[in-house]
Amino acid sequence: MIDPDGVDKGLPIQKTFWVVLLSRLALNMQMRVIYPFLPAISRGLGVPLQTTSLLLTARAVANLSSPLYGALSDRFGRRALMLAGLVILVVGTLGVILAPSFAVVLAAIAFLSLSKAVYDPAVLAYLGDAIAYERRGRMMGILALMWPTSWLIGVPIGGYLIAAFGWRSPFIFIGLLGVLSLGLTVYFRGVGMESTPSSDPGQVLNTGGINGWLRHSLSAIPRRAWAALMVSLLVVMAIENVYIVYGAWLEKQFGLTVAALGVASIVICLAEFAAEGASTGWVDRIGKRRAVIAGLAVNIAAYLLLPQLAGNLAAALAGLFLVYLTFDFSIVSTLPLITELAPQARGTMMALNVAAMAVGRLVSSLIAVRLWTAGGLIANTLVSAVVVVLALGILVSFVRERTLQPDAVSR
Q1: Which of 79, 140, 202, 293 has the fewest CB atoms within 10 Å, counting from its CB?
Q2: 3 state DSSP class of 220
Q3: Could you say which of 219, 238, 264 is where a domain stops?
Q4: Is 386 part of a structural domain of the chain?
Q5: Residues 6 or more apart from 103 whose CB is under 8 A from it?
Q6: What percent of the chain has pLDDT over 70?
Q7: Last residue of a domain, one of 219, 247, 265
Q8: Does one domain contain both 206 and 254?
Q9: Structural domain range at position 256
Q10: CB 242 within 8 A of CB 304
Q11: Segments in 33-132 forming alpha helices (H)
């Protein structure tokens, strides 16, 4: 079905890719719907906003377990873990809907977060197995479009549902999407989704239990792959370092109300769409590694430029657009590159990438506000720029593409 180099052998992926897109829409929505509605959730649960923010911490910690699920994907196949992720999504939303207290909601959100930790590495490895490397950037760029789409669909619908039926109601909608996605994934059994790792799991992983599978998977990952994971960690750490404080910056600098801050969210969402579109169209043509290098170089400049635009709101929003455009283009472009760095343990590799990004977010959650308090936005952006310079240095020095591409791929 699939040869070791990931070249297509007739997999009818076009018949199942739209099911993957729907599933990712639901999985992304359960993450994005929490951010703007934390105050409503706080009021609904009767707890302070600071306490409610623990929901975000619990979610990040849950994602650190993703390497285990990647190893299971390498052992049992991609579809099994994709199904497991969707089951967790459905059960997790049900837990949030029925939870009688904040403690139970916290546990339910942590469990719900596992849905992406389980599903995402498996589906990225599935695409790595099923799609030739020369076309992988386009397909992963399309898949990444479900991130901003989940915001554009989920936040307006979530706001309407909360106003009409209470803070739990968006999770009912997400749960129904999860049920539909799960049913379609089951229905399309054997039509492309019955993908297995790129070589015999029995040869790649031993049968010494979960710890044995994980240890053997980790041993199959070369140094250049670990370096690429550090790039993901640093790039996400840099953007979160700004994301956490940009609202406070706009509020302090321009006196924006909470409602007006929603305009900045729209700008960021548009930047995400533009970045995913650019990655879809260009990454396969110019080469994955080359695309990431270019994106990070401009991202560094964008961080350094942003504080200089503080005199005008339109310029500041344009600066935020550039920061998020270059970040998103860079991080999405790393995905097809990373899928081919450890093809014998592709599921584990993609799961480690999820965990690396979670670590980046955790680090920023500890330092971003402190930097803002000490030196304002310029402190955050300067640190972010230095962090991305480090990421770029690691990429250039240690990461090489497994299969060098032609200068242009016309397909």
Answers
A1: 202
A2: coil
A3: 219
A4: yes
A5: none
A6: 84
A7: 219
A8: no
A9: 221-400
A10: no
A11: 38-45, 49-52, 54-63, 66-76, 78-98, 102-130
What one-character-per-residue DSSP string does 119-164 give?
HHHHHHHHHHHHS-HHHHHHHHHHHHTHHHHHHHHHHHHHHHHHHH
Ordered DSSP codes for 329-387:
HHHHHHHHHHHTTSGGGHHHHHHHHHHHHHHHHHHHHHHHHHHHHHH-HHHHHHHHHHH
Cβ count within 10 A of residue 142: 17
Q: How far is CA 180 from the centre of its chain?
A: 22
Locate tokens 């990040």: which residue?
60
Tens digit of pLDDT for each residue in 285-339?
A: 999 999 999 999 999 999 999 999 988 999 999 999 999 999 999 999 999 999 9
Helix (H) or strand (E) holding 318: helix 313-339
165 is a domain residue: yes
Same domain, 281 and 332: yes
Four-CA torsion 235, 236, 242, 248, nearest 10 degrees? 180
Q: Is residue 188 part of a domain?
A: yes
CATH code for position 330: 1.20.1250.20
Whether residues 235 and 206 fall in one domain: no
* Separation of alpha carbons 371 and 249, rounded Å: 12
